[in-house]
Design goal:
Porin, 8-stranded antiparallel beta barrel
Protein backbone atom coordinates (compact mmCIF):
# COMPACT_ATOMS: atom_id res chain seq x y z
CA UNK A 1 0.00 0.00 0.00
CA UNK A 2 2.82 2.37 0.85
CA UNK A 3 4.43 1.69 -2.54
CA UNK A 4 1.13 2.45 -4.32
CA UNK A 5 0.80 5.74 -2.42
CA UNK A 6 4.34 6.79 -3.45
CA UNK A 7 3.62 5.99 -7.10
CA UNK A 8 0.37 7.94 -6.97
CA UNK A 9 2.07 10.98 -5.43
CA UNK A 10 4.86 10.87 -8.02
CA UNK A 11 2.33 10.70 -10.84
CA UNK A 12 0.48 13.71 -9.46
CA UNK A 13 3.43 15.86 -8.41
CA UNK A 14 5.93 15.33 -11.22
CA UNK A 15 5.04 17.61 -14.12
CA UNK A 16 4.52 15.98 -17.47
CA UNK A 17 4.68 17.36 -20.96
CA UNK A 18 0.99 16.65 -21.56
CA UNK A 19 -0.88 19.37 -23.37
CA UNK A 20 -4.61 19.61 -23.79
CA UNK A 21 -5.96 18.79 -27.21
CA UNK A 22 -9.47 20.19 -26.82
CA UNK A 23 -11.34 20.17 -30.12
CA UNK A 24 -14.85 20.86 -31.33
CA UNK A 25 -17.01 17.81 -30.60
CA UNK A 26 -15.02 16.63 -27.57
CA UNK A 27 -16.98 15.42 -24.57
CA UNK A 28 -15.95 15.76 -20.95
CA UNK A 29 -17.10 13.83 -17.90
CA UNK A 30 -16.29 15.52 -14.62
CA UNK A 31 -16.67 14.83 -10.89
CA UNK A 32 -16.44 17.81 -8.52
CA UNK A 33 -16.81 18.61 -4.87
CA UNK A 34 -17.14 21.82 -2.90
CA UNK A 35 -18.01 23.06 0.55
CA UNK A 36 -19.84 26.29 1.37
CA UNK A 37 -20.33 27.76 4.84
CA UNK A 38 -22.25 30.86 5.89
CA UNK A 39 -23.63 32.01 9.28
CA UNK A 40 -25.72 28.99 10.36
CA UNK A 41 -25.59 27.11 7.07
CA UNK A 42 -23.10 24.66 5.61
CA UNK A 43 -23.38 22.73 2.35
CA UNK A 44 -21.31 19.87 0.96
CA UNK A 45 -21.92 19.75 -2.78
CA UNK A 46 -20.95 16.77 -4.97
CA UNK A 47 -21.58 16.97 -8.69
CA UNK A 48 -21.08 14.95 -11.83
CA UNK A 49 -21.26 16.73 -15.18
CA UNK A 50 -21.29 15.95 -18.85
CA UNK A 51 -20.02 18.73 -21.10
CA UNK A 52 -19.91 19.06 -24.87
CA UNK A 53 -17.48 21.34 -26.72
CA UNK A 54 -19.30 23.29 -29.41
CA UNK A 55 -15.91 24.72 -30.40
CA UNK A 56 -12.43 24.26 -28.97
CA UNK A 57 -13.23 27.09 -26.53
CA UNK A 58 -16.99 26.92 -25.82
CA UNK A 59 -18.40 24.16 -23.60
CA UNK A 60 -21.99 23.64 -22.44
CA UNK A 61 -23.01 20.94 -19.98
CA UNK A 62 -25.39 19.50 -17.42
CA UNK A 63 -25.25 17.11 -14.49
CA UNK A 64 -26.74 15.90 -11.23
CA UNK A 65 -25.92 17.55 -7.89
CA UNK A 66 -26.08 15.88 -4.49
CA UNK A 67 -26.17 18.43 -1.68
CA UNK A 68 -25.87 17.75 2.04
CA UNK A 69 -27.09 20.78 3.98
CA UNK A 70 -26.86 21.56 7.68
CA UNK A 71 -28.78 24.58 8.94
CA UNK A 72 -29.59 25.42 12.59
CA UNK A 73 -28.76 21.84 13.66
CA UNK A 74 -31.04 20.26 11.04
CA UNK A 75 -29.47 18.33 8.17
CA UNK A 76 -30.79 16.97 4.89
CA UNK A 77 -29.51 15.52 1.64
CA UNK A 78 -31.12 16.41 -1.67
CA UNK A 79 -30.82 15.75 -5.39
CA UNK A 80 -30.50 18.69 -7.75
CA UNK A 81 -29.33 19.78 -11.17
CA UNK A 82 -26.51 21.91 -12.58
CA UNK A 83 -26.31 23.65 -15.97
CA UNK A 84 -23.12 25.42 -17.05
CA UNK A 85 -21.35 27.22 -19.86
CA UNK A 86 -17.56 27.75 -20.03
CA UNK A 87 -15.28 29.70 -22.29
CA UNK A 88 -11.67 28.48 -22.45
CA UNK A 89 -8.96 31.02 -23.16
CA UNK A 90 -6.79 28.39 -24.83
CA UNK A 91 -7.25 24.86 -26.12
CA UNK A 92 -3.70 23.59 -26.60
CA UNK A 93 -1.81 24.13 -23.33
CA UNK A 94 -1.11 22.16 -20.17
CA UNK A 95 -2.94 24.82 -18.16
CA UNK A 96 -6.30 25.90 -19.64
CA UNK A 97 -7.88 28.91 -17.90
CA UNK A 98 -11.59 29.60 -18.34
CA UNK A 99 -14.53 31.75 -17.26
CA UNK A 100 -17.86 30.15 -16.49
CA UNK A 101 -21.45 30.64 -15.51
CA UNK A 102 -23.58 28.05 -13.73
CA UNK A 103 -27.10 27.57 -12.51
CA UNK A 104 -27.50 25.18 -9.56
CA UNK A 105 -30.83 23.87 -8.33
CA UNK A 106 -29.88 22.19 -5.06
CA UNK A 107 -33.25 20.49 -4.51
CA UNK A 108 -35.67 19.62 -7.29
CA UNK A 109 -38.58 19.18 -4.84
CA UNK A 110 -37.99 21.27 -1.70
CA UNK A 111 -40.13 20.77 1.39
CA UNK A 112 -42.43 23.50 2.68
CA UNK A 113 -41.88 26.32 3.60
CA UNK A 114 -38.99 26.49 1.09
CA UNK A 115 -39.73 27.61 -2.43
CA UNK A 116 -38.05 26.22 -5.58
CA UNK A 117 -36.08 29.46 -5.99
CA UNK A 118 -34.83 29.37 -2.38
CA UNK A 119 -32.45 26.59 -3.41
CA UNK A 120 -31.53 28.02 -6.84
CA UNK A 121 -28.18 29.72 -7.30
CA UNK A 122 -26.56 31.51 -10.22
CA UNK A 123 -22.78 31.56 -10.15
CA UNK A 124 -20.12 33.31 -12.18
CA UNK A 125 -16.42 32.74 -11.92
CA UNK A 126 -13.31 31.33 -13.42
CA UNK A 127 -10.81 28.58 -13.02
CA UNK A 128 -8.40 26.35 -14.83
CA UNK A 129 -7.90 22.80 -15.99
CA UNK A 130 -4.45 21.31 -15.46
CA UNK A 131 -3.83 18.38 -17.82
CA UNK A 132 -2.01 15.31 -16.50
CA UNK A 133 -2.20 13.72 -19.93
CA UNK A 134 -4.30 14.17 -23.07
CA UNK A 135 -7.39 12.65 -21.41
CA UNK A 136 -7.26 13.53 -17.68
CA UNK A 137 -7.20 16.97 -16.03
CA UNK A 138 -7.61 18.54 -12.61
CA UNK A 139 -10.15 21.36 -12.47
CA UNK A 140 -10.23 24.14 -9.87
CA UNK A 141 -12.51 27.17 -9.94
CA UNK A 142 -13.71 30.02 -7.79
CA UNK A 143 -17.26 31.32 -8.16
CA UNK A 144 -19.40 34.08 -6.75
CA UNK A 145 -22.90 32.73 -6.15
CA UNK A 146 -26.18 34.57 -5.83
CA UNK A 147 -29.32 32.95 -4.46
CA UNK A 148 -32.37 33.50 -6.68
CA UNK A 149 -34.50 33.29 -3.54
CA UNK A 150 -32.74 36.21 -1.89
CA UNK A 151 -29.86 36.16 0.53
CA UNK A 152 -26.20 36.99 0.45
CA UNK A 153 -23.63 36.49 -2.26
CA UNK A 154 -21.17 33.72 -1.44
CA UNK A 155 -17.83 32.43 -2.63
CA UNK A 156 -17.61 28.81 -3.72
CA UNK A 157 -14.34 27.01 -4.46
CA UNK A 158 -14.87 23.91 -6.60
CA UNK A 159 -12.30 21.16 -7.21
CA UNK A 160 -12.64 18.14 -9.45
CA UNK A 161 -11.19 15.79 -11.99
CA UNK A 162 -12.13 15.50 -15.65
CA UNK A 163 -11.91 12.78 -18.28
CA UNK A 164 -12.07 13.68 -21.97
CA UNK A 165 -13.71 11.34 -24.46
Amino acid sequence: MKYFLYLFLLAVIIPTGALSQIEEGDREIQATGSFMAMDNLSMLILSGTYGYYYSDRLQIGVGPVITHTEVFGFDTTSLGLKLFVRHNFTARDKLVPYVSGQWYQHDLSPDEPLDFLDLSFVQFGGGFKYFLNEYIAYDVSGNIGLSLGGGEANLLIVAGISAFL
